[in-house]
Specification:
The protein has helices at 8-22, 54-62, 88-95, 103-119, 125-135, 142-163, 166-183, 190-214, 218-246; strands at 29-35, 38-41, 66-73, 79-86. By secondary structure, it is an alpha+beta fold. It folds into two domains: 8-95, Arc Repressor Mutant, subunit A; 103-246, no CATH class. Helix 4 runs parallel beside helix 8 (190-214), helix 4 (103-119) packs antiparallel against helix 9 (218-246) and helix 7 packs antiparallel against helix 8. It is globular.
Length: 247
Amino acid sequence: MASYNLTEEHKHILRQLVRGIKEGKLSQTFLVTSTNVGWVLMDWKGNDHPKLEYMDLRVLDEDRFLSLRVTGYSRRGSPSTVQCTLRQKAFDAVANDFELPDPVQATGSVIIGNFINTMMGGNVQGAAGSYITMNQSITDDLEILMQRFSKLADQLTEVLAQTFTGEQLRDAITDVSAVQAQVQSDAPDVDLIAVHTQSLGERILAVLDIGDKLGGSIQAALYASNALIVLGGWASTAYQILQRLVS
């Protein structure tokens, strides 16, 4: 079985971060700050915090095991504080001892686990989880799932029209249509579904991020947050449908 292309040091860091989150020593989104003794995990509860370097975090970000955003700079202009969010890919890699999972399982993880747990980046993550728990009950009836998927697609299109305008709206709707076409096809391409679902999520997150940096309106943030919640339920239903089709 193939394995992830990571050094032993990077594997050790991911194991420590995943363990810390599971043990309640660290939240999934955390801050790392440069000090006179090196980079320090500010949110770690305890004295056994992992030893981190900025370049290690950059590598893990590039490999999509975590997302990294610089939030502070030194007087010389170099990064001094970064906000990181551990992605579902990191949890899956540690759980599988860094062996690559089955392609179908891996794609499912991107569609659902990776989207809900990491693409939210801390924004309305709990709300999305509650939405899915309350409204996305598991069913084996494929027809019911397809009806639910179609209904949520309509809701998603409506809320996207409130969130985006012009070319941005057109591109977002293109992502929705691409996922719909694959889910409703006789031979859905799970990789393509994952790509467009992630693209759509990142478009919405960009609206929230711009709002944070530029002091955007509360209404715009509410629209974007609601879009994330509906997208979570829609992606959850798509994944349930794929599970039935490939089983």
